[in-house]
Amino acid sequence: xxxxxxxxxxxxxxxxxxxxxxxxxxxxxxxxxxxxxxxxxxxxxxxxxxxxxxxxxxxxxxxxxxxxxxxxxxxxxxxxxxxxxxxxxxxxxxxxxxxxxxxxxxxxxxxxxxxxxxxxxxxxxxxxxxxxxxxxxxxxxxxxxxxxxxxxxxxxxxxxxxxxxxxxxxxxxxxxxxxxxxxxxxxxxxxxxxxxxxxxxxxxxxxxxxxxxxxxxxxxxxxxxxxxxxxxxxxxxxxxxxxxxxxxxxxxxxxxxxxxxxxxxxxxxxxxxxxxxxxxxxxxxxxxxxxxxxxxxxxxxxxxxxxxxxxxxxxxxxxxxxxxxxxxxxxxxxxxxxxxxxxxxxxxxxxxxxxxxxxxxxxxxxxxxxxxxxxxxxxxxxxxxxxxxxxxxxxxxxxxxxxxxxxxxxxxxxxxxxxxxxxxxxxxxxxxxxxxxxxxxxxxxxxxxxxxxxxxxxxxxxxxxxxxxxxxxxxxxxxxxxxxxxxxxxxxxxxxxxxxxxxxxxxxxxxxxxxxxxxxxxxxxxxxxxxxxxxxxxxxxxxxxxxxxxxxxxxxxxxxxxxxxxxxxxxxxxxxxxxxxxxxxxxxxxxxxxxxxxxxxxxxxxxxxxxxxxxxxxxxxxxxx
Amino acid sequence: xxxxxxxxxxxxxxxxxxxxxxxxxxxxxxxxxxxxxxxxxxxxxxxxxxxxxxxxxxxxxxxxxxxxxxxxxxxxxxxxxxxxxxxxxxxxxxxxxxxxxxxxxxxxxxxxxxxxxxxxxxxxxxxxxxxxxxxxxxxxxxxxxxxxxxxxxxxxxxxxxxxxxxxxxxxxxxxxxxxxxxxxxxxxxxxxxxxxxxxxxxxxxxxxxxxxxxxxxxxxxxxxxxxxxxxxxxxxxxxxxxxxxxxxxxxxxxxxxxxxxxxxxxxxxxxxxxxxxxxxxxxxxxxxx
Lengths: 625, 289
Hints:
Chain B: Pfam families: BPD_transp_2. The structure holds 2 protein chains of 2 kinds. Chain A is an alpha/beta fold. Chain A is 56% helix and 11% strand. In chain A, strand 5 (371-380) and strand 6 (383-393) form a beta hairpin. In chain A, helix 3 (90-107) crosses helix 10 and helix 11 runs parallel beside helix 13 (309-323). Chain B contains 11 helices and 2 strands.
């Protein structure tokens, strides 16, 4: 590999060799060769051990057990890393899956394939039930509920002797091929195949709209709802998949070791998965595999002192959290040697043409408001935040809602989009009663952008925009898992469209950056782009102009005008009066939860009531002075 | 069901209440629900078992050793948990760190007492007395009284002393407290130490009656947590009420239905309570971590 002294290969690339194109090419090659080598060794492992050792089955068993642990750790990674759901249920899910296979294979003498299917089903059902119970629980409580559920699974295992064999458990679980017992070597390949399937499922899920929806819910369920994503559904789906994967690993565990007993579900057995996940790197695809691999080696090294395993793993976990908080993979990715090359930011000129991906609303019957609230009342305790507000927003207009601080502007938006339940009044979208859940309102075509930036900071700019397209995706979660043709088609068009939209907003060169690395103004712009990507009919922007530079203001104004031309209704909640007056067709002025004026900017500018609300009574001021 | 079951329940409840109180003490300044808290119960029980049952020394020695060792455990826990939490910055850090600490202590107890089923020393005061035809063991009565005294004492400390006010301020906002000149770091350490000592005393008193095995620490944590959730995290009185509810529910169901159904009842109650009241029964909504 090149040293720092040799001249960098890339032309005009400043800094170290680690940023040069040659280094990145070399790195890709080396990593690819390494992966192929590891896969090759794993495939040839039974042959290797057969050749070098008298104890081949022992060493095969170690790798197979590690692979089974890796499957469970992948499941844990999906739920904790990508879904933000802290699960302490995973060893319990493995136990439940193991029981399903054990019962089927031993007690019903069914086939082991049926056993695996049953385990996946049992794992999925248990996980979904626990999630349904804890849907409303906050983060901490979710962890506690899963821990309690884990103990319940173990207790059930101890008590339900007819199925689980009580404390002793079920033994003699062995896979059969026809009438013969399957050899351990053959089963080794079954385990390896299952690991490959689990890894590919994880990758496909994370990269699809289903995974993006889960990550959106992890970051903020409010924002996810504004994108039309149902937080409950996204969680249920992801945790169900996690449960199924964990059940699979339970089935393999039982088949590999030949027994299953309640101790499998204990947390000190489960700690190995946490250590693997944190050591390898949470929220990374390959992290779980690397982490579990390292632990397998470690456990093998200290096998003569097996009593100390839990102690060593616990200490290792604490040390890993302090030294490499992002795990091996995360630390590598953040290092100079491991980081990805990003496009240089250039301040490109904005294209004049409006890309076709900007949504259009046509064929709206005349006189029907795009979004209409009538008689909206909202109390917070004794405070009348909104006191009978009427507002009509016509398609093809930019509608401003202004008013002094605390006049109820943001509350009105939250009521119109069903983030707050209203105490009285009605909300209609194109003449129809608005649905009652926030994410359904987004489905009906009303998308909002929040007052403070609500970006998904830890994913790329492009992924942020893609998340906005979730409502349009028609492929099922299963289609995403297996990358069906329809999924591939949609994914390709989505990515093209997202890049076009970003180019239109002047963010094209930053598409692969992390959203957190953008400036404040760019973040706001990106949020609007993300909202536009959901193809809304009504777009509500809550104080988008705050903290923008004049250039960014121009870009925002231009975007609003384009959307108006396309027939959308744009609602602006704003303090910047110049910006609003120049852009809006119609204004609604709120004060203390009541509408005090509505009409064209001209009319509002000259209204005595508005002047009074903002400046006090001018006549009184003059008298006093 | 015998009336003794109620007394047993109140006794177990006062143990859970003390764990719940300790959980709340640590939670308030740190916003950490300490999964390792129950390990201090095992420490107390192990010390009592070691000194009373094996070394045949008295309870006075036991109390002294328990307090010293528990204080050390509290100091150690603070380092083991707070250091990784500060250095990692992950939002899972606290839960993983406390879990790791719990398993480390658990494996230490397992190593030390691998041939012991139950850490059971002789009671402080043997025998019992009769009240209205119900037999109450002295050990049970003593534990309940100690629990009540600790609760009341901590309540007073929290409300009347300067240090108690500082703790309450830190519970509201540790950042503002730093600006007000409150030594937040010292309060965090202190809360870990106080929590560990209280929990260890509960374990020491419980061991002669309740089943305490070297690996049952997490179970005590969860029951204490359930008690804290029912009573609302934060107030000693809430912890007391919650602990009693959990204890009586557990013991009564156990004596009526039998076996380990008691655990089911407690976990099911926890699940139901969290489903119906996502922020606890009496508690203020606890912010999402």
